[in-house]
Amino acid sequence: MVDHPKEWFIDTGATRHVCADKDLFSKYTLISGRELYMGNNATSKIVGLGKVVIKMTSGKELTLIDVLHVPDIRKNLVSGSRLVKAGFRIVFEAGKVVIMKNGQFLGKGYIEKGLFKMNVMTVLRDLEKIPKPKQVKIGPKTVDCIFIGYANNSSAYRFLVHKSVIPDIHENTIIESRNAAFFENIFPSKEEKETSSIKRAHESTNEETHENEEPRRSKRAKIAKTFGPDFLSYAIENDPSTLSEALSSPDAPLWKEAIKNDMLIMGSNHDIIMKTKKMLTKHFDMKDMGEADVILGIKIVKAPEGIVLTQSHYIEKVLRKFNAYDVTPLRSPVDLSLHLSKNRGEPVSQQQYARIIGSLMYITNCTRPDIAYSINKLSRFISNPSHDHWKALERVFKYLKYSMDYGLHYSTYPSVLEGYCDANWISDTKDSKSTSGYVFTIGGGAVSWKSSKQTCIARSTMESEFIALDKAGEEAEWLRNFLEDIPRWMKPVPTIMIHCDSQTAIGRAQSSMYNVLLLKVGKRSILGDTLHNPVST
Question: Which residues contact 452 (CB under 8 A, 6 or more apart)?
Fold first, then answer.
């Protein structure tokens, strides 16, 4: 049986191209009486011969001729030796393979279970947008519900019906809807005597209140939030360092209160996860919410070939909060014709501007590297925003409205850490510092990214690229050490490849006569060590 009939692997030990799926052939001829000999001395029957056209993820096509049709083969194989004889160049480096011909890039692939798997169009997975349920107007009759999570196949909310006067909706049933108004200070599942005195906005204003009922008071001892400007707080050496020490200390109630929060337990062994939950249940009042669907405002969506991390619900909440939900969507977050600079006049709605930047920065740091440059640029003017800064901020809102359902899609392939780095040289005539940016990917999704102003002045485009490579090299070193600490990760961790689009910087870095690199980059640089003992190439 074929593992995955649409996947292709490069095999330098194979003398012929081999395919198991007849549907992939564009030209096909039946043959008989021939067998294919394997490396383990086994044989398989060859039933056909023909031509196969593979479309790479780069958009270019690789045409294979004289491909053997062997239904019993488990993997589709591309013979490396036949490609080389046909004039192709194959480069294996840092867990990655690159295919070129006549100096032109054709396609690439990554190592998977000891073989190099080619990136073809049939394995390219696009992030499926989560469909929105049909919006309807809320009628005069409402239903009291308890929010329990998010729907699996749409962007709606899931509720447990607490009280209903609608005949078609019964109590203690689960419904999905997007037409909801949330009241964070009302807890319908608690008894009436424990409910808050805050009433819902749609309740009748002439309802009598319980004047004689005493409000609930916390039994916890009141502790001052600050000790004043004349005191500093330090960590005490006798503080517990483990959970058992914290629970056995005199301050155990305080530690329990401090630990109360959402918790996400991850692991590869289901039995150990259950034992951990059982142990925590003995010491804490906790509720098992089952398989995680949202954590810290990040929604976890299961896709056919992996998982998707998205903040569509949080983005919608931010847009509605700042009255930007009805804006006209745009396809890009930056207006290149708008040059931003410091405001020399009076600030325009400075506090509101700061609140919006704070909300958007959380989105940027969690799931949206595509707006990292925009938010980093706009955050430089928080202290004194102008009308131009507000105009640029409104464009980010319009882009988020267009890309609300975007997210990060992770799969098991490729399991190779790879980086991309770039820099722009003095894009602002009033600021002599350039902007650096990098992104690292694993499993098809970004895991680390950053866009920031450089701390030193670059005198040329090449130097700005070197400064950007220096920062990317620091991050690559940290990520490699992090992967080394993961017990089940492939050891040793392959060399991390960082891509740079500046041919001048690449040529100068490879020059043995260039010996003043560290003086140009800055007072501390990891790039000089990288060139001699590469973490990245």
Answer: 376, 435, 436, 437, 471
As a whole number of angstroms, the distance between CA 352 and CA 356 comes to: 6
Task: Tell whether 190 is covered by a domain.
Answer: yes
Strand partners, 174: 160
Residue 17 pLDDT? 92
Q: What is the DSSP letter of 9?
A: E
Low-confidence ranges of the chain (pLDDT < 50): 1, 123-130, 133, 138, 192-212, 224-236, 515-526, 528-530, 532-537
- DSSP-assigned letter for residue 121: G
Beta carbons within 10 angstroms of residue 246's beta carbon: 18
> In terms of residue numbers, what domain contains 491?
415-532
Domain-located, residue 255: no
Rounded Cα distance between 94 and 75, Å, is 23
Q: Which residue has the tokens 């294996």?
A: 92
Of the residues 123, 155, 182, which one is the last residue of a structural domain?
Answer: 123
Q: CB under 8 Å to 119, separation ≥6 — which residues?
A: 56, 57, 58, 107, 108, 109, 110
DSSP-derived letter for residue 496 is B
202 lies in some domain:
no
**Total residues belonging to the chain:** 537
Q: Could you write out the three-class secondary structure of 421-450?
A: EEEECCCCCCCCCCEEEEEEEECCEEEEEE
Q: Are 108 and 158 found together in one domain?
A: no
Q: What own/partner pairs with CB < 8 Å and gap ≥ 24 does 260-265 have?
A: 260/284, 262/295, 262/296, 264/292, 264/295
Number of domains in the chain: 5
pLDDT the model gives residue 518: 45
Q: Are residues 528 and 461 in the same domain?
A: yes
Beta bridge partners of 423: 436
Question: Residue 210 falls within a domain, yes or no?
Answer: no
